[in-house]
Amino acid sequence: MSALAGELRKLPAFVRRDFLVAWSYRLPFVGDWIGLGLQAFMFYFLGLMVDPSKLPSYGGQPTSYMEFVAVGIAISAFITLALARVAVGMQQEQLAGTLESLLMTPTSPATVQLGAVVYDLIYIPIRTAVFLVVIALAFGLDFYASGLVPALVVLVVFIPFVWGLGVASAGATLTFRRGSGIVGLGTTLLVLFSGAYYPLDVLPDWVASLAELNPITIAVEGMREPLLGGTGWEGVGRAVAILLPLSVLSLALGATAFRAALRRERRQGTLGLY
After folding, report:
1. Least confident range of 63-72, 116-125, 142-151
2. Which of 29, 138, 135, 10 is closest to 72 using CA atoms?
3. Domain count of the chain?
4. Terminal Cα-to-Cα distance of the chain (whole angstroms)
5. Rounded distance between C-alpha atoms, residue 178 and residue 133, angstroms
6. What confidence tier does 244 reach under pLDDT thresholds 50, 70, 90?
7. Which residues contact 155 (CB under 8 A, 6 or more apart)?
């Protein structure tokens, strides 16, 4: 227990480091928010061409395309950010020559992996909530305020699933130096067939049936139910029950892949090379 407590005490240092790094590069930090806003504007004008009758209803409530796609924008932006942070963070450590030094300290590899993403656990839910509130005010969207916290709970449960993919991507980066593209391609396909930007009804029946098993689909729909249908906590139970074991499995597999890559690089003496 004392060893575990000692490892947990190191996490605030990772949070402070990642915050200072993000804030030191203010243009990308601000550009991320500007990009979100521009994406919202693009989908707003695209939504003017969409027939509202083609959109699904939530909790018996009709929805506009902008309300429908806002959750998809938030989820897809989070996935892009989270995947990039873990893999790019590993690349930066290698390029700076600090990765080997960091792993030679009396710090568990699991702590290093968790430390690489713990900043996101704090930042991403705040970022998502602020984004949804801002675009709701800017575009007059009818979100249920009571659904914000249940939707964020779904997001928090979903975060480790993406982390698992990110840690696996970091392992591929350790081994192949540029190997994160494979994980990124797979994630792009999952987002494409998740119903984030268009209803699953427009897809062929067999594709739509498979898409309903997509963890990203489950997360997106789980957030839409309380925000658009006002179902509150009742609308998130199924999503949380499905996503929780998937997140645990993804994180475990990602950590296993990263440790295997780490052992290989240490054995070959190429850990510090990029």
Report:
1. 116-125
2. 135
3. 1
4. 36
5. 37
6. very high
7. 75, 78, 124, 125, 128, 219, 223
Rounded to an integer, the average pLDDT of 250-271 is: 76
Query: Which residues is 58 bridged to in the sheet?
Result: 61
Q: Is the pLDDT of residue 94 over 70?
A: no
If we measure between CA atoms, which residue out of 114, 30, 228 comes closest to residue 236? Answer: 228
3-state secondary structure of 61: strand
What predicted TM-score, i.e. pTM, was given to this entire model?
0.77
Q: For Cα atoms 21, 104, 122, give the angle at the middle one, nearest 5 degrees.
A: 35
Q: Cα(103)–Cα(80) distance, rounded to whole angstroms?
A: 26
Alpha-carbon distance of 117 to 94, in angstroms, equals 17
Query: What long-range pairs does 136-139 form, CB within 8 A, spacing at least 24?
Result: 136/70, 138/40, 139/40, 139/44, 139/66
Q: Does residue 102 carry a pLDDT above 70?
A: no
Residue 273 covered by a domain: no
> Is residue 118, in this structure, part of any structural domain at all?
yes
| Domain span holding position 28 | 2-268
Q: What confidence tens digit (pLDDT) does each residue in 58-90 have?
A: 877 788 888 888 888 888 877 877 776 666 666
Number of residues that make up the chain: 274
Q: Is residue 79 a part of any domain in this protein?
A: yes
Is the residue at 190 inside a domain?
yes
